[in-house]
Structure formats: structure tokens, C-alpha cells
From TrEMBL:
One term of GO molecular function: transcription cis-regulatory region binding
InterPro entries: HTH_LacI, Lambda_DNA-bd_dom_sf, Peripla_BP/Lac1_sug-bd_dom, Peripla_BP_I
Organism: Clostridium acetireducens DSM 10703
The protein, known as: HTH-type transcriptional repressor CytR
Keywords: DNA-binding, Transcription, Transcription regulation
Signal peptide: none
PANTHER family per record: HTH-TYPE TRANSCRIPTIONAL REGULATOR GALS (PTHR30146:SF109), LACI-RELATED TRANSCRIPTIONAL REPRESSOR (PTHR30146)
């Protein structure tokens, strides 16, 4: 294996000093002629030179790299957010390092430390549970961060991008009720995640308003397909016919629909189904899922923009950005006789 190409190699071939090459590579070449600059860049390209980003970040105090910590990359909701962040970061000259925690807090803390060791400029953080320790690590190391989608109890006033979850669930229940669905089961997410509790609150308040709330119609899931399947099996065991099931994310809705179809239920003739998120596949799987939509791409894009403003010490009007949800009416809800 040959030695790594260095700035000195480029300088020797270009007939200039190493300092001149450094200025061109690091874009501090205001006093260097366009001819020399192009010559150096062409030689660097010809030799497949890759700059030492760590060395550069030590000298400039900036790596032009941001980290994304997310809980489950297999969930299309997070994959779509990550894509939006990557698109926006690339547009603004930033690289991205993805870290998938599998909703495991220990992995989350490990990746937080890893990103800091890579000299990242900031982190977009989507919590997998009680993430206060990970956030404290970022704070102690003066790393800018933006919270997305999920609140963290002691950091609810910090910079963040969220959706109006409670309001979205209320709108969903109102729609189900307008279709004469009164026995509505609800599958929440894990109780340690704030967004789960917000959605559950929206369900409880609206059901109570109409005098139809029953504690035995609330089930806890984990925002996964398997979690939806397990919760649905529990719902089918109760000695009560259910008109509709409201899953607090689309992935659990798909898990539940699989169980119901296997049991011989026709959706929505026998039972109505509603999800939450409006992930891309919602409009492709039959029957198409009625769901409460979040503007996923916009959330990712805005979180990246907010982080870059923080990194560059730009003026920020709002510490938190809240997006409205939108009821997406498709084919899984019908009128109950």
C-alpha cells in the first residue's frame, strides 16, 4: 500500500509552496491567482487528494459536519426526516453523520460521545426515551443541538421542531366520531416518551367530551409494526366490540391491520382504522390508510436550518417551531351503522 497523498505532493507537482496549496484547499485563497488556484485543484483531483477534515477543523474550529441521532431508522417517519436533513445540510455545504440508537439509551449516550469526538458542529437529536443524560453531555461540551419531534422533559424550552400532536389526535377522534364510531380503542406509544403522552391526552379529552371514554380501550404500543400487532391482539381479546382503532403512529396501524385481515376482518366495513404520521407508504398499501399527517420533510428541513443558524450565531426569531397536523382521509374509515 502506497503512502497517503499530502498537500506537499500537490505543491511539488504544481511548483508552489505547501502554504499556497493549503490556502486553496481551505478556501482562504483571496490573494492567489485564478490560474494557480485552478492548477492546484486540478492536480488535487488528479491525485485523488482527500483533505484531513479533523486537521482542518482544528485550525478553523469548524468541521462542516452535523450529527443526527435518531431512535429507529427502520421507521419510515425517521428515515424521511433524516433524508430531509441530509438534503438541506448538503445544500448548505455540510456533511452528515447518522447514528441509529434502536431506542436504547446506552447506545444513544455512546453515539453522543462519538459525535463529539468527531468534532461535529452540532447535533439534530430525536429522543429514544429518557435522553436527559445525552443532552447534558452535549451541553457540557458546548455542542449546539436541536430537538426534533420528541420533547425532553427538562429541555422543553430549548431549540426544537415539533408537531401539534394533541391537536392532531383530537381532529382524528372528531372525524371518527362524525362517522358514528363511538367505541374507539387507542394504541399509544411508550409512556416514557412525551409525544406518546400528548397524543394520549388528545384522545382522552375528546372521548371524555362526548362521554365515551373507557380506560379499558387504551393500550400501550412501542411505535413498531410488532407493537401494533401485539396491541391489536389484546384489543381483540376484550369482551367488547370495537368500532375503530386509532394507532398513534402509522407503523403500528400497519401491524394492527395485518392481524385484523388474518382474523377475517374487512377494513373499513367491519372496523375503522386511523394512523398518525402519514409516512409515504400510507398512500400505496391497500386499503390506503386514513391518518393524521405530519409535514415530515418540512420538519427535517427546518430543524437543519435552525441548527445551521445556531452554529453560525445568526439571529433566531423563534426557539421552537410548531407545525400543524392535517387529517388525511383515505380508505380505512367508514360510517358505523
Amino acid at each position: 500500500m502506497g503512502k497517503k497523498i499530502t498537500m506537499l505532493d500537490i505543491a511539488n507537482k504544481a511548483g508552489v509552496s505547501k502554504a499556497t496549496v493549503s490556502m486553496v484547499i481551505n478556501k482562504t485563497d483571496n490573494k492567489i491567482s485564478e490560474e494557480t488556484r485552478k492548477k492546484i485543484l486540478n492536480i488535487a483531483k488528479e491525485l485523488n487528494y482527500i483533505p484531513n477534515s479533523i486537521a482542518r477543523s482544528l485550525s478553523t474550529n469548524k468541521s462542516n459536519t452535523i450529527g443526527i441521532i435518531l431512535p429507529d431508522i427502520t421507521n419510515p417517519f425517521f428515515a424521511e426526516i433524516a433524508r430531509a436533513i441530509e438534503d438541506e445540510a448538503s445544500e448548505n455545504g455540510y456533511n452528515v453523520i447518522f447514528c441509529n440508537t434502536d431506542n436504547v439509551i446506552e447506545k444513544e449516550e455512546k453515539y453522543t460521545k462519538l459525535l463529539i469526538s468527531k468534532l461535529i458542529d452540532g447535533v439534530i437529536f430525536i429522543s429514544g426515551g429518557d435522553s436527559s443524560k445525552s443532552i447534558k453531555i452535549l451541553e457540557d461540551n458546548n455542542i449546539h443541538f436541536i430537538l426534533v419531534d420528541r420533547y425532553i422533559e427538562s429541555y422543553y424550552k430549548y431549540y426544537g421542531v415539533y408537531c401539534l400532536n394533541e391537536k392532531g389526535v383530537k381532529e382524528g377522534i372528531e372525524y371518527l366520531y362524525s362517522k358514528n364510531n363511538k367505541k374507539i380503542a387507542f394504541v399509544s406509544g411508550p409512556k416514557e416518551i412525551q409525544v406518546s403522552m400528548q397524543r394520549l391526552k388528545g384522545y382522552k379529552e375528546t372521548m371524555t367530551k362526548y362521554g365515551i371514554y373507557k380506560n379499558n380501550l387504551v393500550f400501550e404500543g412501542d411505535f413498531t409494526i410488532n407493537g401494533g400487532k401485539k396491541a391489536t391482539e389484546e384489543i381483540l381479546k376484550i369482551n367488547e366490540k370495537v368500532d375503530a382503532i386509532f394507532y398513534s403512529n402509522d407503523m403500528m396501524a400497519y401491524g394492527g391491520m395485518k392481524v385484523l385481515v388474518k382474523k377475517g376482518y374487512k377494513i373499513p366495513k367491519d372496523i375503522s382504522i386511523m394512523g398518525f404520521d402519514n409516512i409515504n407508504i400510507s398512500k400505496f398499501i391497500e386499503p390506503e390508510l386514513t391518518t393524521v399527517g405530519q409535514p415530515i420533510y418540512s420538519m427535517g428541513k427546518n430543524s437543519c436550518n435552525l441548527l445551521i443558524k445556531l452554529i453560525n450565531n445568526e439571529n433566531i426569531d423563534k426557539r421552537q417551531i410548531y407545525f400543524e397536523t392535517k387529517l388525511i382521509i383515505r380508505d380505512t374509515v367508514s360510517m358505523t351503522p
